[in-house]
Amino acid sequence: MATLPLLSDADLTPEARAVFDDIRATRGSDFINNFWRALAHDPALLAATWDRLKVVMGPGTLDPLVKEMLYIAVSVTNGCSYCVHSHTAAARAKGMTDAQHTEMLAVIAMAAQTNALATATQVPVDAAFDAGAPT
Amino acid sequence: MATLPLLSDADLTPEARAVFDDIRATRGSDFINNFWRALAHDPALLAATWDRLKVVMGPGTLDPLVKEMLYIAVSVTNGCSYCVHSHTAAARAKGMTDAQHTEMLAVIAMAAQTNALATATQVPVDAAFDAGAPT
Amino acid sequence: MATLPLLSDADLTPEARAVFDDIRATRGSDFINNFWRALAHDPALLAATWDRLKVVMGPGTLDPLVKEMLYIAVSVTNGCSYCVHSHTAAARAKGMTDAQHTEMLAVIAMAAQTNALATATQVPVDAAFDAGAPT
Amino acid sequence: MATLPLLSDADLTPEARAVFDDIRATRGSDFINNFWRALAHDPALLAATWDRLKVVMGPGTLDPLVKEMLYIAVSVTNGCSYCVHSHTAAARAKGMTDAQHTEMLAVIAMAAQTNALATATQVPVDAAFDAGAPT
Amino acid sequence: MATLPLLSDADLTPEARAVFDDIRATRGSDFINNFWRALAHDPALLAATWDRLKVVMGPGTLDPLVKEMLYIAVSVTNGCSYCVHSHTAAARAKGMTDAQHTEMLAVIAMAAQTNALATATQVPVDAAFDAGAPT
Amino acid sequence: MATLPLLSDADLTPEARAVFDDIRATRGSDFINNFWRALAHDPALLAATWDRLKVVMGPGTLDPLVKEMLYIAVSVTNGCSYCVHSHTAAARAKGMTDAQHTEMLAVIAMAAQTNALATATQVPVDAAFDAGAPT
């Protein structure tokens, strides 16, 4: 089930097809996952999302695998089933080992736990943690 | 404000004091942040939380700074103000640069955005992402 | 799967049946969706929920379609799969066009993104935004 | 700061005043907390919220203190600072002991942790847990 | 408190200054809120966020006020205090009346409530709601 | 679908087998649900999670059924489908009646609703609720 039909390649507008072409070229794979097939209904939204994703997940100061793990951490916390699946697969493809996978799970679970405790106790932020004084 | 008084060192039970001693020794610092001062009301909860945190955030297959960034990603998504502050400070202390900091923010923001789109479109998980067939 | 059996019309108490009758009359349709068939186990909860929904989503200062879109925005953010499906269908039934649908998705995604950035940076609320001075 | 001014008693419409009177009579206290002073801008919303709260938190099959603790669990998970404070105070007023308080925190933290693990692993629901076959 | 210092106009790089100039021109106001002063640490992130926001919140098929209300609905559900404040102020500036404000609150609250009920009962999505059959 | 294969009994390491043995002995049942079969990939994570769960959900000052209901409240709010199913089944096994079940749903729904209102109005915490003055 979905709230929008998933578009096949034959249904694409030229603008959407250009984005699919770029996804395929960037990833070196013909496979286009369902997420993009839903967004393809709005080529401008599709293009804006893909273009930004390519920049954000592209070369920078953080390792590509670290970025995928950050993505998983957010997706788990948001309870996004699709995203947990797709980014765990992506992290695997980028070399995440079994040991790194379960160690990441332990960190995410620990954070969820202490988040709950900090929120439940409503402890004030220590002054030592402030980095935000106006310059 | 908090839902539990924050305990000063003079208020601790011997069991809680032992945990504070271990926090200080492990971190090489006298500073005990408010989170632990609230949990100190229940020495068993304090000890269980700290002991597990020490294992989870200790040596393993992931870099300590990566673990702090995963912690931040979860805390941001849960909206835990205290945790965002404390783990951003911890990541800074472990060497997170300005560029890594803002690159991490961009990844977290991107994930929040595509999480929302995947949830709003309710696209089915692609079969290619399944890693869970029973063995 | 569900945590409560879904009640068929034959299983209803008179109080629950009266609510189903009102749902059908209000909507001008015989179809009762699964949500109400689960709540029907507790006729008082069913009645309270439906009665309030009818008022809140009924005539007022906001357009009915706008209300459905607000409902979708909350449901997406809460990750409620059932609710995203049912209220997207309701918004479609109230005239939401394809273009409005994807434009709404873009707004929801943008909000998710800047929410994450504001939470991650923990910026203080500008004094200019305060509307809450006691009268 | 707030997004609506908090109304003093002198600012109330007669309908809002009647709700405040009922809150005071029900609680046996003159104190009206800020939540109601914000809702008082819309007497119909104020009345609907209070009337429903009085029913839901009133006599039933669950102990009043258990209901407050459930309320805290939801509020912590939603990250609602105001609600965590107000319902922790309410639970205290209904007799929650220090030991019950911290034991509740441990349960909430445990749930947050295993929620994260279940979501991260995306394990399918066991057939044994299904209670929802249509009757 | 914040996790990044807020930059004053004097601290900006030329790229960040250009974004601030565009914010001021677009809004017809000299006021730059704290959100942008934090993002200004990373001019590329600042520019990407502002450029996309300008498009998404700009002219389209939805009324600008409706877009602000959708933004508020997401921000409330995410528990983003800063965002609730800033977008409520923006909605006010775009003409949201008191009656529209509290009616929106009632819809958001209703959605939160039925989201919880649908998630707690785990009712399956009705086949009638499916819009996602592949074309 | 899952992000990790579910391990059968034949796949377990001795350490994981010992945990499964303890789960079976503690619960007086041969049934091991999928959650543990996923965690079994990392015997240390499996053991730490189970050992802590046994303590937290074991004897204390709160009734075992109350603890399961708190667990449900958190799981619903986090939108964890697996957890809602498993802990509702557990609460049923511990004697939760139909009336208690739906009364709990009403409390959870009420909390979700007023959480949204408190967050949307951003009312300041009343001084009367503060329990956190340093001792």
TrEMBL record, chains A, B, C, D, E, F:
Pfam families: CMD. InterPro entries: AhpD-like (IPR029032), AhpD_core (IPR004675), CMD-like (IPR003779). Residues 43-123 form the Carboxymuconolactone decarboxylase-like domain. GO terms for molecular function: peroxiredoxin activity. NCBIfam families: ahpD_dom. PANTHER family: CARBOXYMUCONOLACTONE DECARBOXYLASE-LIKE DOMAIN-CONTAINING PROTEIN, SI:CH211-175M2.5. This is Carboxymuconolactone decarboxylase family protein. The lineage of its organism: Bacteria, Pseudomonadati, Pseudomonadota, Alphaproteobacteria, Rhodobacterales.
